[in-house]
Design brief:
This is TIR domain-containing protein. By secondary structure, the chain is of the alpha/beta class. The chain has helices at 14-26, 34-37, 44-53, 70-84, 119-129, 142-157, 178-185, 235-240, 247-252; strands spanning 4-8, 30-32, 57-62, 90-95, 111-112, 195-198, 202-209, 212-220. The radius of gyration is 19 Å and the shape is globular.
Length: 253
Amino acid sequence: MSISVFLSHNHNDKPFVRKLARDLENHGVRYWLDETEMKIGDSLIQKIREGIDGVDYFAVVLSPDSINAPWVVNEPDVAMNYQISGKKIKVLPIMLKECEPPGFLIGKLYADFRNEDNYVKAFKRLMQSIGVVFNKNVMSDEKVFDNLGTALDKASHANIPIMCKPFHRPFQYMGMQVPQAEKIFECKGNEVGSIFVEDDDCRMHLCAEGNYISFVEVDFKKTIPHYRNQEFDSEIFLGALSIGLSELELVGK
């Protein structure tokens, strides 16, 4: 069973948190991030409680913005209540920018990400603290991260919603064993093992070859107006799936 982390943060720190999430994912660590888990109409309080209840670690990203944000203040309270009630969940303070940490974090050792040049070193220490073997070779490339940010921005500007699970970064299912995929999606594959998943926005086809998922196809049910004199920009829809343009090359290789 993989280790999981809840990422508590302020919206202004989102670029850093997205990069952190990518690197966690590349190290086999599952993460809970609001934009990948929540849909319009979801109960914010309920989803946050469910998210915290389903993880091993609670990471709170500290910055002047986050320590004054109501939700970032309330989320750690929920985590601390779980600790008091006996649930095994460990709080991981992550110092992104210089600030005075909340009282319950004073005296705790924190992961120091204040200096961008020391990001890899800080991330390595973070992995060691949760018992995960650090692998520098799978760290997010700056080019990849920049491309992802561009794709997300394009999707946002085009008013295309960022898809949450299971459509979030769908290439993660490639190479997965069919039984594992069936467990994740809570449905059985067809006679050849292929799995179909859909909601109001997307339809996803996970094609099986033998006992493994060989490729993933995602169709959008809702798009945006497109004019003949306007060049089609596929990066908008990649952004909606939280995929950077350069990541397609990495997956292909």
